[in-house]
């Protein structure tokens, strides 16, 4: 076997993704097979890091070892494992070959080998050939021969990544810590390969090493909590607690006690001393989600804590020192809240020492397919399906859709479509292919960006025309009709201004803070 292309890549400075992709491309050509996949072991599942011959969304899937007996068998052995054309074990790539999209794999050969790095299991390499007899004794021997080079490519990529991390952040932990961190992510993993996401991840890696407060900015559903967790994991405080506080869910009367604690007798019902969230996060990170919802009185106490590192329990005489890093997040424009008097200017400047905008899903290109692949595999396992995938038209529909609800909306769309498919009688033993009609994105797009009001247009059947009475023809109160009109106008303005609330407020000629309050009342936020 000619190893020169592989050896050349090992001696060349290449990004990990490029090196590993070129590796699987070379192996597919060398073995004349239909697909090659390199999967990394992370706790109890295998994550594809490079594939050739599979649909793109396969990179976003996570294959639970316990649910895929072929992968489990490969992982359990050190030598080459083969599955002949008459094997009854289900194939994890059913419906995912790019030459047979949505179709079951025909009678074929499959082989794979487990990989180890630094004496620890790293993952598996799998090869599938559509023509039976492709993987004879010579091919199996060649794959065993390739194993050393594949493991060397993985090891070199890891070493290069560690060297780069040490240069940019001296506190960065070693490979063993990195494995532990990645293995513990589970369903909270950040998925994607787009340039905006990679830039964001690099920025967070750099800022994680400081103790500066970080303000995560982004629309609802972009995953701000995931990035806050990532910041904590990559920081020197990773061994200490990360405490999550949803400020929007704190009753105003209890917010101060929840954050700073209270002493016995501080108020009716305070029968014992109770530490607050700051003390629970001692040495670690306090994540203040929806920080723009904090009452003004609590904002003042939070400012003092950020300034001098002290808290004072409600009803206590003396302050206490705390060592806590604060990471805050909001989907609101805090500058506008400051201008409206709803948020303290001095606290805003303290929290936004390092603001980090998180890109919405519509700006992340093909990441939508990788994330969809993640949700497809989760729903396949949850519903007990043989295979669950997207048709080509469904993939294009996902790319075109603006995703006003971002990743959270995508998760709901995929889950709902899978359930719809089952309700329409598909068999769990078939390859279930989701078509655009099941995604129902046209209806969501219509609600996110309604058509302009036109007095000359006929009324739609779903909205009866208004009458001169104080109720419409369906008997709804006038308030409901007014709310519907306001909801329509707001969503229309947001659609025209690409979801920018400040620009929408100016177009509607209303105060921005009042628009946010109205949107919350109408259920738009």
Strand portion: 5-15%
Structural class: alpha/beta
Q: What is the helix tally? A: 20
If you compute it from the alpha carbons, what radius of gyration comes out, rounded to the nearest whole angstrom? 27 Å
Largest sheet properties:
6 strands, antiparallel
Distance between the termini: 60 Å
Q: Count the strands?
A: 15
Mean pLDDT: 82
Give the overall shape, derived from the CA principal axes.
globular
Strand order of the largest sheet: 3-2-1-6-5-4
- The percent range for helix content is 40-55%
Low-confidence segments, given as residue ranges, are: 168-187, 446-476
Task: Describe what you observe in this structure.
It is a single chain. The chain is of the alpha/beta class. It has 20 helices and 15 strands. The chain has helices at residues 4-10, 16-31, 69-76, 137-168, 175-183, 195-207, 224-233, 255-260, 277-280, 296-308, 334-340, 345-351, 367-383, 392-400, 406-423, 436-439, 441-448, 478-496, 501-508, 512-521; strands spanning 35-42, 45-52, 63-64, 81-83, 109-117, 120-129, 214-217, 242-246, 285-289, 310-311, 320-321, 325-330, 354-357, 387-390, 431-434. Strands 3-2-1-6-5-4 form a 6-stranded antiparallel beta sheet, sandwiched between helices. It has a 5-stranded parallel beta sheet with strand order 8-9-12-7-13. Mean pLDDT is 82; it is low at 168-187 and 446-476.
């Amino acid at each position: 076997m000619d190893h020169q292309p592989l050896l050349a890549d090992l001696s060349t400075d290449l990004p990990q993704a490029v090196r590993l992709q070129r590796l699987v491309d070379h192996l597919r050509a060398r073995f004349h097979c239909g697909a090659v996949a390199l999967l990394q072991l992370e706790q109890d599942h295998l994550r594809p890091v490079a594939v050739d011959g599979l649909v793109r969304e396969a990179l976003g899937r996570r294959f639970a070892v316990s649910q895929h007996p072929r992968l489990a068998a490969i992982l359990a052995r050190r030598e080459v494992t083969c599955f002949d054309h008459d094997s009854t074990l289900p194939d994890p790539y059913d419906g995912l070959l790019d030459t047979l999209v949505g179709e079951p794999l025909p009678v074929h050969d499959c082989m794979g080998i487990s990989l180890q790095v630094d004496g620890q299991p790293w993952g598996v390499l799998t090869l599938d050939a559509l023509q039976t007899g492709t993987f004879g004794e010579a091919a199996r021997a060649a794959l065993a021969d390739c194993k050393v080079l594949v493991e060397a490519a993985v090891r070199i990529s890891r070493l290069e990544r560690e060297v780069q991390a040490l240069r940019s952040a001296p506190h960065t932990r070693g490979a063993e810590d990195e494995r532990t961190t990645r293995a513990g992510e589970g369903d909270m993993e950040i998925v994607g390969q787009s340039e905006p996401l990679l830039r964001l991840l690099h920025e967070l890696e750099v800022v994680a090493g400081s103790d500066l407060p970080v303000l995560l900015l982004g629309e609802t559903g972009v995953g701000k909590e995931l990035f806050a967790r990532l910041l904590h994991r990559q920081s020197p405080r990773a061994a200490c607690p990360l405490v999550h506080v949803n400020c929007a869910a704190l009753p105003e009367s209890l917010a101060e006690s929840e954050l700073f604690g209270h002493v016995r007798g501080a108020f009716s019902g305070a029968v014992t001393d109770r530490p607050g969230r700051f003390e629970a996060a001692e040495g670690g990170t306090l994540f203040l989600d929806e920080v723009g919802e904090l009452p003004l009185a609590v904002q003042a106490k939070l400012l003092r804590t950020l300034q001098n590192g002290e808290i004072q329990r409600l009803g206590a005489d003396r302050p206490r020192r705390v060592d806590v890093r604060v990471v805050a997040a909001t989907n609101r424009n805090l500058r506008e809240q400051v201008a409206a008097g709803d948020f303290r200017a001095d606290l805003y400047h303290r929290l936004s020492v390092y603001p980090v905008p998180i890109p919405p899903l519509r700006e992340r290109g093909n990441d939508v397919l990788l994330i969809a692949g993640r949700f497809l595999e989760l729903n396949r396992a949850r519903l007990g399906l043989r295979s669950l995938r997207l048709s080509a038209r469904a993939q294009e529909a996902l790319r075109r859709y603006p995703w006003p609800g971002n990743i959270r909306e995508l998760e709901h769309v995929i889950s709902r479509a899978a359930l719809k498919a089952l309700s329409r009688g598909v068999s769990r033993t078939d390859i279930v292919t989701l078509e655009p009609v099941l995604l129902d994105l046209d209806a969501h797009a219509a609600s996110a960006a309604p058509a302009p009001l036109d007095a000359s247009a006929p009324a739609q059947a779903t909205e009866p025309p208004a009458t001169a009475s104080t109720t419409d023809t369906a008997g709804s109160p006038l308030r409901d009709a007014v709310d519907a009109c306001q909801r329509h106008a707001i969503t229309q303005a947001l659609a025209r201004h690409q979801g920018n609330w400040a620009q929408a407020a100016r177009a509607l000629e209303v105060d921005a803070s009042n628009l946010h309050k109205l949107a919350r009342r109408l259920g738009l936020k």
